[in-house]
Amino acid sequence: MIKKWDIKDEQIQRKCIDEILTRLEEQDGTEFGILAAEDIIETVANYIGPQSYNSGLEDAKSLIQSKISDIEVELDILKTSV
Description:
Number of strands: 0
Strand content: under 5%
Structural class: mainly alpha
Largest sheet: none
Shape: rod-shaped
Radius of gyration: 22 Å
Number of helices: 2
Helix content: over 70%
């Protein structure tokens, strides 16, 4: 089954699950399983993932627009006067 939060790097995925399990156990004192941790990640990914993704796209768009403006200025400086 493919999950929305699936990560190609299994080491990062496992670390995330382990971290969630550790934090849940520290707070509640109850042991949770991998499926519970995966369910938490899935829930977070469904609600926060699209907003984070869109925010990243907006950041990239702003950066690209800034770089284009810089290039336009540099090209204007290169113009020769007649």
